[in-house]
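Hi F.,

I've been meaning to write this up properly since the lab meeting, where we talked about keeping a consistent format for the predictions we share between groups. The idea is simple: the sequence comes first, exactly as it goes in, then the structure tokens exactly as they come out, then a line or two of notes. No screenshots and no reformatting. I'm using this chain as the first example so we have something concrete to point to.
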Amino acid sequence: MSTTTPGDYVIRSVRADEWRAVKELRLAALRDPVAHLAFLETYEQAAAKADAFWQDRAAGSGEGSTGVRQFIGEAPDGSWAGTVTVLLEEAGTTDWAGHAVERRQGHVVGVFVRPEHRGTGLIQALFDAGLEWAWGRGAERVRLIVHEDNERAQRFYRKAGFVPSGVVVSLPQADGERELEFVLERG
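Output, unedited:
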């Protein structure tokens, strides 16, 4: 499935054979000036991962995968301008931070739009695709975790209809820094 946005971006799922582009876009995201607020890994950690990791990542989050889907925004010149990944979390399981998952939900991660494509509507189109995918798989809500100091991201998430849930996640590796859960209920 792919759609075209008003800015002529094609929104679609990644394919397993596109692992090199998946890697390149992730490394670009980790070079962003606010990457330390937006991602739980560093550029150095990601760059050190073997090709097999990136191959598995693309295959596991691409077309045909059932529990996770990575969407990309392809610019008119064919370059990848941005990405959003949605994980499905099942009721009765525990999430990455050790919290109980109470209902089937989508979890948005890996949000990134290259600076030259920001303000074009691309991020909304990526979110729309991710939300449609999660709702289509029976998610009762979609959530995301955002650093308390990442105001740019929080502004967009609020604009997209997400609201703070009141859940705060402390990151042990970040020496007391806090992440806020934002949620969007199916409506």
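Notes:
The chain has a mean pLDDT of 92.
The radius of gyration is 16 Å.

If this format works for you, I'll send the rest the same way.

G.
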